[in-house]
Amino acid sequence: MTRLRQHAANKITSTLVLIAILFSSCILAVKTSGPFPIKPGIDAALRPYVDRFQRYGHQYKGAGWHGHDVYVQFGDTSSFVVEDPKLGNRVIGVCKTATGNAPNEIVIDNATWNSADQYEREALIFHELGHCAIDRQHEDAVDNDGIPISLMYPSLIVSAIYAPRRDYYIKELFSR
Ligand SMILES: [Zn+2]
Question: How far is the centre of ligand 1, averaged over its atoms, from the C-alpha of 152 (Å)?
Answer without folding.
Answer: 6
